[in-house]
Amino acid sequence: MAKALALPAPDGGTQSKEGSLRWLLTLGLLTLLSAAIGGGFGLVMVSGIERQVEEKYKALPQKTEVASPYKGAIAIKQLAAVVTNLAGSQSDWVRLEASIVYKPGEEQHPDVLASETRQDILSYMRTVSLAQIQGPSGLLHLREDLNERARLRSKGTIQELVLETLVVQ
């Protein structure tokens, strides 16, 4: 009969501990190496971006002055409040306070100019409905319309009509 050869059992406890320790050390070393490479790449990218931003910033004009539309001799006069009802409704009332920016020394007296402008605003507001002045775009259209009417009425003496308050009740 043949005898079976019995091989001694390998002592895998120490070899498996050494193998897993090497594996962990290799992973730790690769992690540190990748963190160092990633950090270095990030620093290179940040310095390149900073340099590009600085170059673009230097290319821009440093102080840009906004040209004022109010050059030369100008004056401002506050108008008396305009209180009237709106078109199409007896219950909707509006109170509007405004000022005019004008060129002094023109042929018209400022008080006469202010009174005529106030009268024109009053007559215009009586033709406007509540739906026309609602919202930001309605207010913008109202402001543009009143400015245009004031310039036409004064033959260019009034540069702008400044709306101070607008209350609709």
UniProtKB/TrEMBL annotation:
<feature type="transmembrane region" description="Helical">
    <location>
        <begin position="23"/>
        <end position="46"/>
    </location>
</feature>
<keyword id="KW-0997">Cell inner membrane</keyword>
<keyword id="KW-1133">Transmembrane helix</keyword>
<keyword id="KW-0145">Chemotaxis</keyword>
<comment type="function">
    <text>Controls the rotational direction of flagella during chemotaxis.</text>
</comment>
<keyword id="KW-0966">Cell projection</keyword>
<keyword id="KW-0969">Cilium</keyword>
<keyword id="KW-0812">Transmembrane</keyword>
<dbReference type="GO" id="GO:0009425">
    <property type="term" value="C:bacterial-type flagellum basal body"/>
</dbReference>
<protein>
    <recommendedName>
        <fullName>Flagellar protein FliL</fullName>
    </recommendedName>
</protein>
<dbReference type="InterPro" id="IPR005503">
    <property type="entry name" value="FliL"/>
</dbReference>
<dbReference type="Pfam" id="PF03748">
    <property type="entry name" value="FliL"/>
</dbReference>
<dbReference type="GO" id="GO:0005886">
    <property type="term" value="C:plasma membrane"/>
</dbReference>
<dbReference type="GO" id="GO:0006935">
    <property type="term" value="P:chemotaxis"/>
</dbReference>
<keyword id="KW-0282">Flagellum</keyword>
<dbReference type="GO" id="GO:0071973">
    <property type="term" value="P:bacterial-type flagellum-dependent cell motility"/>
</dbReference>
<keyword id="KW-1003">Cell membrane</keyword>
<keyword id="KW-0472">Membrane</keyword>
<keyword id="KW-0283">Flagellar rotation</keyword>
<comment type="similarity">
    <text>Belongs to the FliL family.</text>
</comment>
